């Protein structure tokens, strides 16, 4: 058991113990947002035949070489092919076939002239400019080549990928299972928000916060009843959680006081502690342990601290267990829009928001830091302030972990 | 009816006809991702009492003024308050109360010294440094003040907001209804991806693409059977769609050929056309009409064109109908990572991907443009190239509409 590890060491210790949880096959619409578990290969080229890019006439480009306004070329229309039909005739010299968008190019033709560019009369068309071979034609394999890798294992499925898979007739998609995350809130001071207020008690925000955060990162929360600060009750809940979930999160009961019973509960169930405490503020009080090849992360009861350590330690684990290629949180650098007045004897994480300004990455700190949730509603970054840093000045360059959706920063005016 | 309108005019004409579709009340967990329909006000301050920031001892700061290592101050511990309990005694001069994280500060005390900083023996603690008044105390209202607006109407609910609402005992959330979007794919060449391949036919990717895109923007897709290129069949499907959905999308049948029957179908059901064609490439073939106070957007059959116009014209409408504050697509500016070889006689939209590099917003064009879906899988931007532009050079600054998730650009190395 290690004590007071660095954030990177904490992440590594946890990541070294987890693997993707399993895989399954889902229907195409159900694959949205899921992570692909096997490389997807194109079963055929797309388009699978040369086709017309628009409604027009399939011709031989050679026939139009001398066409001009002064000396137009006249071609005889010998057939019409609608989209979904197949041409019967060949385009021989002097002839054209009327063709609709997406219809297969007839044999002999190598270009399509759009309807708007020609006049048709008495079964013939008049062409007034030369066409290049291939113009107006979408060639076989233009989008996808047979055998090509369409999507690699470990990527998340978005709408565009679903469109591509549909075009290739792929209706069953191999994906990783969603990670089931059990959340246990400990603390005799906790009330459910549906209960009546009581002096000295608080509503359990961690349950709802972490359940929602799980959903935001593609995991499936499994809620277990909250338990009081009592080692036996916590141990019982942990046992249930290990049966029902792939990863167990507890909140509360991790700090130094005599009511801090998480360690005793972990000992009762025989969990091995990986580390206790991470050298960051907020969020130093974290205990990571494992039992039955599953990780138990015990976070502080304070919602801000719980959220920060959930994002920094639990989310990478969830990402790896979800099968995602790169489990670590992305880091962006940017210019601070405003300063931070305090020194940071310990490594500190500041809630912040990415802000766009003329293509530059500005980073705006939340108005309040520490023990506040409301100030963080619009935050999508955690600025990483190294231990020993002096106060931060506006205009200074900083690095930040991306923990939320950057698109949320786009709604305001530049 | 207007012909060949600008993109901005198209958006305005459609937006001027739509309103939020309705509102409802959902449970707190179900509010994730939904749009709030009424300002949410804090019913009480949070915290609602002064509380201890950690496990320690509540003291009077004045008692510790002279404390030093050489001359420590000794205080008598008169009570213990666990989280969730309420102190019975007052802290009088010379005394301290043992207190757990989150427990209410006892009367008379104005500071908390952490367990780690003192020794307790024989019912007394020894303090070796002075405390400032307020240190170790989280004051009432530190996070939220009673009566404060927690979230304004028109914002989307994220996990952090759910945490704040839970802490305030708000368990029922007023949200706008999700927009129901009917999707009708027309075209005799279309096969469902579950069907056997046939020469000259293609799998209907638009259905799956647009359904998934609807889900990505928080709308609820309503699928209607595909219909052949036949005005009566299309008209029948449109009627059903207007009954079931708030917004109707059709794909296919909008270009200039003789099989292009969307306009005839719109005329059969008595829809009024707002505009036909938008001056952009790809995606010029769009018809917007309205009937029964609902918008019908008829997009091209080509998936790339359908997707571009869905994002640029349908998404703003969906956003307004969803109740979001700002329906227009955000625009970012950035430096092109590579050039584009063609001139743009018409306004052109190029599929691209945001790329981070040293805090700069780099924009990387997709390898292929036009009639390709696969190249666009990783795209989250549409670069806006004004009509009359020469080829684009690497290093040039361009503006782009954000159509996808910017976080998707963060996984690669800088």
Automatic annotation (TrEMBL), chains A, B:
Top enzyme class: transferase
Pathway note: Cofactor biosynthesis; molybdopterin biosynthesis
InterPro entries linked: MoaB/Mog-like_dom_sf, MoaB/Mog_dom, MoeA-like, MoeA_C_domain_IV_sf, MoeA_linker/N, MoeA_linker/N_sf
Family matches, as CDD domains: MoeA
Pfam family, one: MoCF_biosynth
Protein's GO biological process: Mo-molybdopterin cofactor biosynthetic process
GO CC terms of this entry: cytosol
Catalytic activity annotation: adenylyl-molybdopterin + molybdate = Mo-molybdopterin + AMP + H(+)
A GO MF term: metal ion binding
Key words, A-Z: Magnesium, Metal-binding, Molybdenum, Molybdenum cofactor biosynthesis, Transferase
Enzyme Commission (EC) number: 2.10.1.1
Segments forming domain MoaB/Mog: 182-320
Cofactor(s) annotated in UniProt: Mg(2+)
PANTHER family noted in UniProt: GEPHYRIN (PTHR10192:SF5), MOLYBDOPTERIN BIOSYNTHESIS PROTEIN (PTHR10192)
Function description: Catalyzes the insertion of molybdate into adenylated molybdopterin with the concomitant release of AMP.
Family membership: Belongs to the MoeA family.
The protein's name: Molybdopterin molybdenumtransferase
Native species: Thermacetogenium phaeum (strain ATCC BAA-254 / DSM 26808 / PB)
């Amino acid at each position: 058991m290690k004590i007071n590890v660095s954030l990177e060491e904490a992440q590594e210790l946890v990541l070294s113990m987890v693997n993707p949880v399993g895989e399954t096959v889902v229907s195409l619409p159900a694959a949205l947002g899921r992570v692909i578990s096997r490389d997807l290969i194109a079963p055929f080229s797309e388009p699978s035949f040369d086709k017309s890019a628009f409604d027009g006439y399939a011709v031989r480009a050679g026939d139009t070489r001398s066409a001009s306004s002064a000396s137009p070329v006249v071609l005889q229309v010998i057939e019409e092919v609608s989209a979904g039909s197949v041409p019967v005739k060949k385009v021989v010299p002097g002839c054209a076939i009327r063709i609709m968008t997406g219809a297969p190019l007839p044999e002999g033709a190598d270009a399509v002239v759009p309807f708007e560019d020609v006049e048709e009369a008495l079964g013939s068309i008049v062409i007034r400019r030369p066409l290049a071979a291939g113009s107006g034609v979408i060639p076989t394999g233009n989008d996808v080549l047979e055998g090509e890798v369409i999507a690699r294992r470990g990527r998340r499925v978005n709408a565009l990928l679903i469109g591509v898979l549909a075009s290739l007739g792929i209706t069953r998609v191999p994906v990783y299972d969603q990670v089931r995350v059990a959340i246990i809130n400990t603390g005799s001071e906790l009330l459910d928000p549906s209960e009546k207020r009581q002096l000295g008690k608080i509503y359990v925000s961690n349950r709802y916060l972490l359940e929602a955060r799980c959903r935001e990162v593609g995991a499936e929360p499994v809620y277990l009843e909250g338990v009081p600060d009592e080692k036996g009750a916590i141990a019982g809940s942990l046992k249930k959680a290990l049966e029902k979930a792939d990863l167990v999160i507890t909140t509360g009961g991790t700090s130094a006081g005599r009511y801090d019973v998480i360690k005793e509960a972990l000992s009762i169930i025989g969990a091995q502690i990986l580390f206790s405490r991470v050298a960051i503020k907020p969020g130093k009080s974290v205990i990571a342990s494992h039992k039955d090849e599953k990780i138990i992360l015990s976070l502080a009861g304070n919602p801000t601290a719980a959220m920060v350590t959930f994002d920094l330690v639990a989310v990478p684990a969830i990402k790896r267990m979800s099968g995602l290629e790169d489990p670590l949180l992305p880091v962006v650098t940017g210019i601070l829009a405003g300063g931070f007045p305090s020194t940071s004897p310990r490594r500190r994480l500041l809630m912040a928001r990415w802000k766009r300004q003329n293509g530059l990455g500005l980073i705006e700190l939340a108005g309040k830091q520490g023990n506040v949730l409301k100030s963080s509603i619009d935050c999508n970054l955690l600025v990483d302030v190294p231990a020993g840093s002096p106060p931060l000045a506006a205009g200074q360059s900083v690095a930040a972990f991306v923990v939320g959706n950057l698109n949320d920063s786009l709604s305001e005016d530049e």
